[in-house]
Amino acid sequence: MPRIFIFLLSLLLTGCAGSAEDSSVDSEPTAPSSKLESLAQPAPACSEKEFDAGSAVIAKQLRAFSESEPDAAYAIASERFKSMYSVDDFANIILSQYTMLLNIKEFTFQSCTKEADIYYFVLELFDLQGIQYKVDYAVSVINGRWGIDGAAVSRTIN
Q: Where are the domains of the chain?
């Protein structure tokens, strides 16, 4: 991360540095540096409607996990996800890698951003043992239907 910051800072300073001749008042405006144009722009935040719809889908799946209903949790997955994994595959993934989703005490939505046709939600989740996790969800709308494409969980140190 520090390398990226230093690189971006050096690009910014390089783009801003110039001779006194370049900064004269009556010179023609110049196009932005091509280095700056190539930098990725931050993803836009979701609208309130998108946030509400996406978070409702995620909350519904988390309730299904809490109620030990793998079929109901799988039904909320996107068509893209279902084309790659069966309900048995899905259940095995949850049981082997995401057991904290089966023992949720509480969760809160932290943010939502949108990139192309994927919405990225960040949640803070506490399991029944009080362990805190950060959960990143990828959600999409395919043919007007919201569905979950995937999730990644990382433990947060308290």
A: 48-155
